[in-house]
Amino acid sequence: MSTEPATPAPESLPTNAADETTISSDTFQAAVRRSEALWKDIPANPHKYRVLTGDRPTGSLHIGHLFGSLQNRVKIQNLGVTTFIVIADYQVLTDRDTADNVAANVREIVLDYLAAGLDPENGRTFIFPHSHVPALNQLLLPFLTFVSLPELDRNPTVKEEIRAAGLRQINALMYTYPVHQAADILSVKGNIIPVGKDQLPHLELTRKLARRFNTRFPSEPAVFPEPDALLSETPVILGLDGGQKMSKSRGNAIMLKATAEETAKLLKSAKTDSNRQITFEPETRPEVANLLRLVSLCTGRAPEAIAAEIGDGAQRLPRPAPRQARRTGEGSGLRRRRDPARRRARQRRGGVHPRRRPQGDGHGLLLRRSFCWVACAAGRITARREQRRSIRDKSSR
Predict the structure, then answer these.
(1) What are φ and ψ of residue 147, in 5° steps?
(2) Is the dihedral of CA 246, 251, 256, 262 positive or negative?
(3) CA 129 to chain centre
(4) DSSP-assigned letter for residue 124
(5) Strands ordered across the beta sheet of 125-129
(6) Which residues contact 16 (CB under 8 A, 6 or more apart)?
């Protein structure tokens, strides 16, 4: 391996903020085309690919993780692809002053992984913490020589992380976070990485670092592959406030380990709007659209179809009969219901007593549907978590 610096001008370190500020539209479209081709090729040739993905152990995972990444990882694993999942415990230090709960959080995340269907016993799925592989941190050092400070400073994903964490004083580890991530990916020769659009700047930097290293130290074959993005069709899952990405730190998440009762309580607090007719309009009604999307992800049905089925909810909820008529089928309550004038008045009101209207609108039915399906999905995860926990507890005795 040559040690002479032979980096050509196109791959020299950028010095002005005009170069490579963010992911351009052309770069994104190219990533989409590569991702589509990869999804078609993976089932036929899983042995050609190696995946690295992972999470920071800041707490247990929530349903945003389940629909946004875990299901995708299980799908890739089941197609036969070698999959590495890093629990990035060192990266917890980027925006936190203490690491007291990291060990417990690592265990909780592993339980969530196993419950979601990731299988480290199949011989091709590997789960490991950062701190257990010192070579990852050693690889970070040479990689830092291939990136400039302006590149790190203007990375949009890092800026969003800083904004979300509310940091005023930024430590150097936060700025080098994308390089650390590149070291994780390239250390296992990962060549496809499941990401969302917001993570593309990180991956683009990884590709550049691989290219710069291979140019500086040429060999045949190249030392590191240039990984491609494997884009997921799952949209960003908003929290129960309907305005921000689901996150435990923002208090708007439903945890995978939540019980049915806890899930119901959380969904009842979900933000909606004042329009009782349910429609799927993500741009103008993000809160309602988010609940519809959750039901869609749980059922496999289109959110538009679910919205059309719910409508205003009034004609799909049973109307309580008067007490006397319900008990005996006779009396003044039944006579009042048969009175044509009263019946026409009820029809004009939508068939529901005005005081009961809030229970009969589309929001009530949407919340109940959301609870039913989300609790069902989360309940399966919770049951598998407890099963795995009991097996581990028995084996450790």
Answers:
(1) -135, 145
(2) negative
(3) 20
(4) S
(5) 125-129, 82-87, 50-55, 192-195, 228-231
(6) 150
Residue 262 in tokens: 């806890």
AA letter at 227: P
CB 336 within 8 A of CB 258: no
Domains and CATH numbers, the chain: 9-231 (3.40.50.620), 248-317+352-395 (1.10.240.10)
Burial of 241 (0-12, 13-18, 19+ CB in 10 A): middle
pLDDT reading at 316 higher than 50: no
CA atoms within 13 A on the CB side of 49: 26
Give this prediction's pTM. Answer: 0.72
Counting Cβ atoms within 10 Å, is residue 323 exposed (0-12), middle (13-18) or buried (19+)?
exposed
Pair 295, 306: CB distance under 8 Å: yes
Q: Is residue 191 a contact partner of residue 227, using CB atoms and an 8 Å limit?
A: yes
Residue 311 confidence (pLDDT): 78
Q: Among 130-134, 146-150, 366-370, whose mean pLDDT is lowest?
A: 366-370
What DSSP element (H or E) covers 128? strand 125-129
Average per-residue pLDDT for the chain: 77
* pLDDT per residue as tens digits for the range 157-197: 777 777 766 777 777 888 888 899 999 999 999 999 988 77
> Alpha-carbon torsion 88, 94, 95, 101, what sign?
positive
C-beta of residue 321 within 8 angstroms of C-beta of residue 298: no
Name the strand (E) or helix (H) holding 32: helix 25-41
Residue 85 phi/psi, 5° resolution? Answer: -125, 115
Closest among 166, 105, 193 to 178, alpha carbons compared: 193
